[in-house]
Write a structure and sequence with these properties.
Helices cover 41% and strands 12% of the residues. The chain has 280 residues and is an alpha/beta fold. Strands 3-2-1-4-6-5 form a six-stranded mixed beta sheet, with helices on both faces. It is elongated and about 80 Å long.
């Protein structure tokens, strides 16, 4: 299931990130807590180099807390801090200011020695599409400055946003990378909506997701869809779910499009409970 999606504005954004890096003190990289490896753009790490970085694991309410904690320990470095957050509710975001103070202590001391009373830190917000960058910015700014959408590619240009925490945020459009090498990465990005559904075979995608869920979270699938048991055949499980949900066409045929959209929507909305698709 080969997926490559690198629109022109993404190539342009990559160039802009390189050019604007010198304007900021720190990079705030946002990832999806359910797919922390897949939602990492390898280009971002190479572009940022030694620039201090905070990695926000957004949508942590949709991931398993114990696994997210393992990831936090795994990702911590001298110049990197990691925080599990929910950008919709604001949970965890209060810890960003102390983390910035720790990462930028040298700069703050230097500014204080110069007699600067009010220190403003500048942060660039980066991440793949649909990971929650605009939600984060709006929560920090306490307004709806940045456009929000439940589909990738909503933010199309750079913009500066002021907050009341002494932080100015530079928003950038979400960027994927030109070639997605791993099939697992491709699927996990597609499962969570980082790649537009319009370019996907939605029925095949939902079947692949159901296969993963039945393997890793069988009890969740059984309980959610009131199944007696799971079959070893993913298609049979999808058929049984369709029957339970009434996704049936005339002639008693399965409405695969309807049940596929329902499965993806319920997974993405957390209806099956917190799920982590990757382990460190």
């Amino acid at each position: 299931m080969a997926i490559n999606w690198f629109p022109g504005h993404m190539a342009r954004t990559k160039r802009e990130i390189k050019e604007n890096l010198k304007l900021v003190d720190v990079v705030v990289e946002i990832r999806d807590a359910r797919i922390i490896k897949a939602s990492k753009n390898p280009d971002i790490e190479s572009i940022c180099g030694s620039k201090p970085r905070i990695i926000l694991l957004n949508k942590s309410d949709l991931s398993e807390e114990s696994i997210t904690k393992q990831w936090i320990s795994y990702l911590l470095e001298d110049n990197v801090r990691v925080l599990a957050v929910n950008c919709n509710t604001g949970q965890g975001l209060k810890s960003i200011r102390p983390m910035l103070n720790e990462l930028l202590e040298e700069k703050h001391n230097r500014m204080k020695k110069k007699g600067v009373a009010k220190i403003v830190d500048r942060a660039m917000v980066v991440g793949i599409p649909n990971v929650g960058k605009s939600s984060f910015i709006n929560k920090m700014a306490k307004s709806s400055i940045a456009k929000i959408g439940d589909r990738p590619g909503v933010t199309k240009s750079k913009q500066w946003i002021k907050t009341k925490l002494g932080i100015e945020l530079m928003d950038t459009p979400g960027i994927l990378w030109p070639k997605l090498e791993s099939e697992e990465t491709q699927l996990n990005l597609a499962f969570t909506g980082a790649i537009k559904d319009e370019i996907m075979d939605i029925e095949n995608l939902a079947l692949m997701l159901l296969k993963v869920l039945c393997r890793d979270y069988p009890d969740r699938v059984i309980n959610r869809y009131k199944l007696d048991e799971l079959s070893e055949e993913p298609l049979e499980n999808m058929n049984n779910i369709a029957k339970k949900r009434g996704a049936i066409l005339s002639g008693k045929e399965i409405n695969y499009n309807r049940v596929s959209i329902m499965l993806l929507d319920e997974f993405r909305g957390g209806k099956l409970g917190p799920i982590s698709l990757e382990r460190p």
